[in-house]
Amino acid sequence: MTIHPMKDKFFEEHKPDMSLDPQYGIIQKHIVEVCDSAILKEIGDKTEARVNSNQSGIRSVDCWRLPVDSFVGNIIKKHTLNFNSVFNYKISNIGDIQYLEYKKGDYYNWHSDISDGIASTRKISISWLLNDDFTGGELVFQHGGDEFIARAGIGADEPNMVGFTSFYTHKVNPIKSGVRKCIVAWVHGESWR
User: Fold this and answer.
1) Beta bridge partners of 29
2) Is 10 helix (H, G, I), strand (E, B) or coil?
């Protein structure tokens, strides 16, 4: 059974060049947009950060679901086009946007963003770091048997947004001090084949 995510007019108007091969990977970039955590909490819906019941203990984090049709969604859309100019995937929509706060001891163990159902159509995962006044909390990827820590910071030369192919295994290390604040989003497209 093929799952077809709902199509967003924005992505219909910005189709990738299908004459180019798709590229899988991780892209880090610096973006200048800023988001205030109080505003994100105000526009978002606090929700339990659930995972499949067979993955008990995979994460500890506070989560707010943000409207896809919001100023945050518009920022994510713009940067999705930049990421997809490299990835060149058939993408349809942003399926979910979440604001996350990792407090001391919070973490997200090794996982992939692709699962069953609608999560099987995730193509691009996005992690946007909003602050850097914490320790621990590194975003770590596995690739080819090696671990890769995404550089992250808020300074002008530091990448604060990462876009990556959703099937890459990754984690967030436990927070040692402070609160790690980030926005995550998943861009969907036709089922992988």
Assistant:
1) 161
2) helix
Range of the domain at 124: 9-13+24-50+58-189
Q: Enumerate residues 6+ apart whose C-beta is below 8 A from 87.
A: 16, 22, 23, 24, 25, 27, 123, 124, 163, 165
Residues contacting residue 62 through CB under 8 Å, at least 6 positions apart: 46, 49, 100, 101, 102, 103, 106
Structure tokens at 69: 């049709």
160 domain-assigned: yes
Does residue 40 lie within any of the structural domains?
yes
What letter would DSSP give residue 12? H
The pLDDT tens digits of the residues spanning 52-71 come to 434 457 888 999 999 999 99
pLDDT at 148: 92
Contact yes or no for 191/120 (Cβ under 8 A) = yes
pLDDT tens-digit profile of 5-19?
678 888 888 888 888
Distance of CA 188 to the CA centre of its chain: 12
Q: How confident is the model at residue 143 (pLDDT cuts 50, 70, 90)?
A: confident
pTM above 0.70, yes or no: yes
Q: Report the alpha-carbon distance of residue 91 to residue 80 in Å, rounded.
A: 10
The burial of 20, by beta-carbon neighbours within 10 Å (0-12 exposed, 13-18 middle, 19 or more buried), is given as exposed
Provide the greatest CA pair distance for the chain.
47
